[in-house]
Design a protein that fits this description.
This protein is about 30% helix and about 25% strand.
Length: about 240
């Protein structure tokens, strides 16, 4: 079992700052999209797809995009119906077992996915239920996304609320392998292996080959907190 030590973790504050800065960028993006959606309220669901597409497509179509998915999931109270309303787009994909490789963003089509029935109760899923109950941005994952990316991802969602009612969540998906590109250089500067874990101890990024992404490891109060997130950096190894 991986150990944690105060001395080792104390050598990685720069990496913790890097994590905080990266997710602050994502939070700022979501905040801008949330405000843009609210600026159109109470217009309701009219041209909702077009409104959301105008917000998210530039980020997904950028050169070397950080995001692999982005959009808005509308609450039934907004759409006036019971059907799931996903205004969600996927960025250009690697060789994906469902879609193959794509070169441009594409809209998520739930009707074409018979295995997406579980989303009809999406309000019970973490990426929706936690922002709804806390009224705050939430990070879900890492987890394997079987619906879109078919890879390890992290999802960040923020509640969109108007006049005391929940309109839905605006959110993004990020490949874990992209987080590795962004975070490993700072993490590798530590004098021993470290892992970035979520609040449950599940590893997201690691410099220790014996502790891959998805592993759950224990951590104590001495773990290095990454401000503005629920992530911590934990020293691993003997």
């Amino acid at each position: 079992m991986a150990e944690t030590t105060t001395a080792a973790v104390s050598t990685v504050p720069t990496a913790a700052v890097r994590v905080s800065e990266l997710f602050a960028r994502i939070h700022d993006t979501l905040g801008g999209w949330r405000e843009a959606i609210l600026a159109d309220e109470p217009a309701g669901a009219t041209s909702l797809d077009d409104r959301v597409a105008a917000l998210v497509l530039p980020a997904l179509a950028a050169d070397d995009p950080l995001l692999i998915g982005a959009g808005f999931v509308a609450a039934p109270e907004l759409t006036g119906g019971t059907d799931v309303r996903f205004c969600w787009w996927l960025g250009p994909l690697d060789d994906n077992p469902v879609f193959g490789a794509t070169r441009a963003p594409s809209k998520l089509d739930l009707a074409a996915r018979s295995y997406s029935d579980y989303l009809r109760d999406f309000r019970s899923l973490e990426w929706y239920s936690v922002p709804q109950s806390t009224h705050r941005t939430h990070i879900t994952g890492p987890y394997v996304d079987h619906l879109c990316a078919c890879d390890y991802i992290v999802t960040v969602t923020s509640p969109v609320e108007y006049d005391g009612r929940m309109l839905g969540v605006v959110g993004v998906d990020v490949y874990v392998k992209r987080l590795e590109r962004e975070l490993l250089p700072a993490m590798l500067a530590s004098d021993r292996p470290v892992a970035l874990v979520n609040e449950h101890g599940r590893v997201t990024v690691s410099t220790d080959p014996a502790v891959p992404a998805g592993t759950v490891i224990p951590f104590g109060p001495d773990a290095e907190e990454c401000a503005g997130t629920t992530f911590r950096l934990v020293a691993t190894g003997v």
